[in-house]
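Late entry, written up from scratch paper. The run itself happened at the end of the previous shift, but nothing got recorded in the book at the time, so transcribing now.
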Amino acid sequence: MTTEFKNHDLVPSHTTFEGLRYERRPVIDRSGFPVEGLYTAWIILDNQAQFNSYTTEMTKGVILSMRRASNERDVVAVVFTAEGSRAFCTGGNTKEYAEYYSGQPAEYMAYMRLFNDMVTSILHCDKPVVCRVNGMRIAGGQEIGMACDFTIASDLAVFGQAGPRHGSAPDGGSTDFLHLYVGVERAMQSCTLCEMWTSYQAFSYGLITDVVPCLKVDGEFLPNPTVETGSESKGGKLVYGLPKTGDALLAGKALLKSGEVDLAPLDEAVNGLIAKLLYTFPGCMSKTVESMRKHKLAQWDKNRETNRSWLGLNMMNEGQAGFRAFNEGPRGHREVDFISLRRRLANGERWSHEFVETLIPRETAEV
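Output as recorded:
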């Protein structure tokens, strides 16, 4: 006797969202063969022109796609990833932030309700979620990535935050999750200084599950040549995973340029992890994943509403200035003059529309 199932989806499964794709791909077994009748749901950010930053529409799509994957009874796991090899996600779409949400706190709070729901939809997904990091995972991209259960990354990817440099705070998950992965001081370093970590650093710090070489030179896969992958100490500092400097960096960049990015090993590693999940009791697996997520959810549920309110109000001053500077500033000069800003505030100037306008970097006329 078979069960006649009810449909628990919120929208029809054929609903599409600009900038987002949902694909069902066969699960691969231990022997490397597709399994008939069982699938992996791939949720793919597809906004390469803007480094796969999520728009309002894409955010809606992730929420409903996670729900769809939860409801599909033949889905074993979810792969959350993006198109291309340059970026998994660089966070919220700064063009949309600058041109619509800046200066409109109520509108941004409505958007942040969607963002919060996106993070929650990952944490509430009934299937294990694997973040396949094909490139940069920065800012809000880092936050939605950390909401996932596993992360497997190309060794060409970088990880980090950007908030305090661009008019925000990493309160969309990083201040809740990052210390659970890497400890308080490393989390403080990342969230405040906005310095990037290589994939090898992220792996050694415990942020990600695995890292995979994806640079092919003359038919052979090589580790990222711009990163130190030895374990020796140099100048009292462990060099494993740190970016190279000087001539070594220049040589590494030349080697990088001579090759091509091939994400086949990344896909193989992702499929290998899901194959391990395949050979488990599905109910026990779901309960185990749910129990492990409680530590993230305890932080997330405690802070997300107050953070949402602050982020909305911040769009009246620093958020407005930071996102507009990034969107309108000339290439290579997309940050405000922080020293001037601090001096002016210390001297009693107040935030206003006119004040923000004076902070936006502009092209200088050539003489």
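The chain has a mean pLDDT of 94.
(Scratch paper discarded after transcription.)
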